[in-house]
Automatic annotation (TrEMBL):
PANTHER family, per the entry: TRANS-ACONITATE 2-METHYLTRANSFERASE, TRANS-ACONITATE 2-METHYLTRANSFERASE-RELATED
Pfam family, one: GFA
Organism: Periconia digitata
Protein name: CENP-V/GFA domain-containing protein
Domain (CENP-V/GFA): residue spans on this chain: 296-415
GO molecular function ontology, one term from the record: carbon-sulfur lyase activity
């Protein structure tokens, strides 16, 4: 989605919401937001996607008469309300100015030329942008050396029907007015901010953002959620024709059901908030701590399951057992083994345990069906990861080589083993067990 399209979509979406925007949970959330950051008297602050100025005015009080706050937003209706509130307050907010423009292109906004700021805030807006890393890199140019950027992104189960809608649109190759699939955990927000060149000081999870905490929807209510999101709220006309809506309905149902456990779909009212700093000499931050020890990362096809691993894995074992054939839909499953303690799942929204024997526990993604891992109950200190789930480009060091073919007694008859020099066993010497 080009940034102009994003901005047009935002205007369409927020223009009609501007009149009652201040009746929503955003009022309380902006108070929590400012309580988590340091805005001091005399600071120059830039509040991006400022909306009706909820956070901007709080910042104005914090910086006092010697500081200044600029709020920028693209939606005229939101800015009209902000300007109205400023007028109503007499000279209380003299240190605030509002500018209209697309914050993906701050260089095109008159009034920002040559300016840098002590603090930049972006509340409840990052997930509206198709490329979070690119916009953060752009915003960071407007920070003073040592300046702070504070911004939040959604918990994957926040407004869960919106998430399902996003998946539905992606499967139909349609543009969606937001991009939240990447925002899976505190770590994924930290990673995206650090990849944009800023050092993250902390990330916190703000629970109970809109006041309902957690709730569970009956899986059968999918149609109500489809109607509410797709029919009622589709101001950007993503699902423009009846034909597309019909297709979207089937996919929405499928994606909604995939998220259900025991007939319920969980919704979590939470966001992740990151506070990051530009280095004192203005140079780009290169992560040395968080990612230093990561040897490889991985995940599933749809991205809802993600992990990182800090240990060099074993060489590859190709398991030809019948279960591996059936769960992979192939002739065998290639695995690498790692110490379980070296593995951290950073996103588990759709990770589901799969028990197909008394000896081992497998896991897979309910979103896309990808097999992820297997742990033998007799050896929980070791986890086997499917090689297909490993991000090949993330590998530091040498890529594992094929070392063993196991369970050849169950090998698919049509499979011809390659001359790869790997050891071959009928059952499973390595794992010392008789079924997987
Ligand atoms: C959920 S509101 C958040 C408003 C405010 N930050 C708050 O916390 O109350 C999202 C805001 O992002 C603005 N927005 C979306 N895309 C934008 C863009 N490309 N440039 C400027 N503002 C944008 C919308 O107009 C809307 O006011």
């Amino acid at each position: 989605m080009a940034s102009e399209v994003q901005a047009d979509n935002a205007i369409r979406f927020y223009e009609s919401r501007s009149y009652n925007y201040d009746d929503t949970w955003h009022v309380d959330f902006t108070k929590r937001f400012i309580s988590l950051i340091t805005v001091e008297p005399g600071h120059n602050v830039l509040d991006l996607a400022c909306g009706t100025g909820l956070l901007t005015f709080l910042e104005s009080e914090a910086v006092g008469p010697t500081g200044h706050v600029i709020g920028v937003d693209v939606t005229p209706g939101m800015l009209n309300i902000a300007a109205h509130k400023k007028r109503q307050a007499g000279n209380k907010y003299e240190n605030v100015s509002f500018l209209q423009g697309d914050i993906s292109h701050l260089d095109r906004i008159q009034g920002l030329e040559g300016k840098t700021f002590d603090v930049i805030t972006v509340a409840s807006a990052l997930v509206l942008f198709p490329d979070p890393k690119a916009v953060i890199e752009h915003w960071a140019q407007y920070l003073k050396p040592g300046g702070i950027l504070a911004l939040d992104s959604t918990h994957p189960r926040n407004l869960v029907s919106g998430m399902v809608l996003e998946r539905t649109a992606r499967r139909l190759n349609l543009a969606v007015p937001y991009n939240r699939e990447w925002s899976q955990s505190e770590s994924t927000l930290k990673n995206v901010v650090e990849s944009a060149g800023l050092e993250v000081e902390k990330v916190v999870t703000c629970e109970n953002q809109a006041g309902y905490g957690k709730r569970f929807h009956d899986v059968d209510t999918w149609d109500d959620h489809f109607v509410e999101n797709v029919i009622m709220k589709d101001v950007t006309r993503t699902f423009a024709t009846n034909e597309i809506r019909k297709q979207a309905q089937g996919i929405f149902k499928e994606e909604w059901e995939r998220l259900s456990v025991d007939g319920k779909v969980e919704e979590v009212d939470a966001v992740f908030l990151a506070i990051a700093r530009k280095s004192a000499d203005g140079s780009r931050y290169i992560s040395t701590s968080a990612n230093k020890d990561i040897v490889f990362t991985g995940g599933c096809r749809c991205g809802s399951v993600q992990y990182k691993c800090t240990a060099q894995p074993s060489e590859l074992t190709f398991c030809h057992c019948r279960t591996c054939q059936q769960v992979s839909g192939s002739a065998f499953l290639p695995f690498i083994e790692v110490p379980t303690e070296s593995l951290e799942f950073t996103s588990t929204m759709t990770l589901k345990k799969l028990v197909l024997s008394s000896k081992s526990d497998r896991s897979f993604c309910t979103g896309c069906g990808a097999p992820i891992s297997m742990i033998f109950r007799s050896n929980p200190e070791e986890t086997s990861l499917t090689m297909s789930s490993v991000d090949q480009d993330s590998f530091k060091g040498t890529m594992p080589k094929v070392k063993k073919h196991i369970y050849l007694e169950e090998k698919a008859p049509w499979m011809v083993l390659p001359e790869d020099g790997a050891s071959r066993s009928q059952r499973v010497e390595l794992l010392n067990t008789s079924d997987t």
